[in-house]
Amino acid sequence: QVQLVESGGGLVQPGGSLTLSCAASGIAFRFYAMAWYRQGPGNQRELVATITPDGRINYAGSVKGRFTISRDNAENTVSLQMPSLKPEDTAVYYCNTRDRQDYWGQGTQVTVSA
Fold this sequence. Notes:
mainly beta; seven-stranded mixed beta sheet; four-stranded antiparallel beta sheet
């Protein structure tokens, strides 16, 4: 049974930072690409960043140069460092992986507000 459990969300002021973490189980983690998505109020879920098993990374244009995705294959975790947060980063952030189907975590709320 695949499980993805996110943590690290919260309320932060503009310009602040958060680091999200996703713990994966039920998969041979080192062979799986991992991704972070987010869904803001009234918006569709959008891709934030991906990291392949061999460490190739892609970012959405809105976070490129600000956010950093990384993975720890020994700990079966994927993280998203988010400095310089903006109000428009407010969203529920989801961890994702896929094989024949998509797997999602329960999401973690990030709120950027003064």
